[in-house]
Amino acid sequence: MVSAGEVSGDMHAAAVLKEVKNKIKQTEIFGMGSTALLDLGAEILIDPTAISTIGYLEAFKNIGQHFKNLKQMRQLLKKRQPDLVFLVDYSAFNMRLAKSCSQLGIPAVNYFPPSAWVYNRRRADKMAAYGTNIAAVFPMERDVYQAAGADVTFVGHPLLDLVKVQASSSELRAELKLSKVRKVIALFPGSRHSEVESLLPEMIKAAARLHKDYQTEFVLAAAAGITDQFLAKFLDKIDFDLPVLRGSNYKIMKAADLLLIASGTTSLEAAILNTPHLLGYHSAFTTYLLAKYIFKVKFVGLPNIIMQKEIIPELLQNDFTAAKIYRQVADWLENPVKLQQLKSELAVVRKKLGGGGAVKKTAELLIDKGGLRNG
Fold it and tell me: Which residues form a coiled coil (predicted)?
């Protein structure tokens, strides 16, 4: 039985369970997920991705439906008594489901478990008490759950197997029609319309000044759901060249000298490719207050969380301004040694993420904990 509540969780779950099915041919999969699990042949009875949100208070808008889904999953758990439950991300929901697994004596493996290393370490205590097996993707995750007494396997982060670009930077610049001699800065304003609307205008203002003062070249990496029509209102009045590229994010990251990005997985991808970047974040004000003052989240960017210090500059909320972006990038351009220092730090981040093979290691953990066998 699988429980994945968001698009990213659905993709990570499907990658692991595909490996399980390759090894254990007759594995049957059912539960909660979305298109990636459906494509794998799983019996998906609940697809909650339409109500998934970012932010603490924002999630309450659909709390009634979340509890209905939880009730249905608990009923399925009792009725079908699976050999194993695979919990992927979706922490508040899956913590409750983990408790039900414990009460029924059904083993569970949690991949991308609750972020007890960011705040509220009691979450790790609870998961340990439930007997949930933790497939840790981050080193600090491993440490917190081990300290709580949980059964932990450090599998590393699956992005290490996905974020790979074989071509050199110069080859990629030729392919993407980027300058071979100028500094290239790529803009990654996010995959949601709200992110683009709050971050891209300041990115463009900073880019205009940097282009004028340092003759830098820019490129905009557009996410799949961000159309040219939507971008037109931001790009129509600019007086410098800003090509829009799609479907080549990793190539753009490796080809560029610097990145301006929206907070999220993109920062970890950039770290794996060893590309310096500045991180911007703008959330609902209530979410920001909860994170900063109640849960006391020190950093937003995953590279900073992993290193437990700010190696990637973070410009949050009203601090994400064109003037501050300009000052940081100008400092990097005028002091190349600072960029090299940052690259050295990013190399350490990559090393801390493990040696690769997370999907295979997690699949082997599922097979072991579920007692799955061929024949």
Answer: none
